[in-house]
Amino acid sequence: MISIDCEMTGIDFCRCSLISVGAIDLSNPERRIYLEMKPFDGAFLDDEGLAINGFTKEQLEKIPLSQKEGLEQLKKFLDESDGRTVVGQNVAADIIFLNMSFVREGVDCKIPYRAFDLHSAVCAKLLLNKEPIPMKERKSTLNLDVLLNMAGIPDEPKPHNALTGALSAAEVYFRLIEGKSVLPEFSSFKFEK
Question: pTM of the full predicted structure?
Answer without folding.
Answer: 0.93
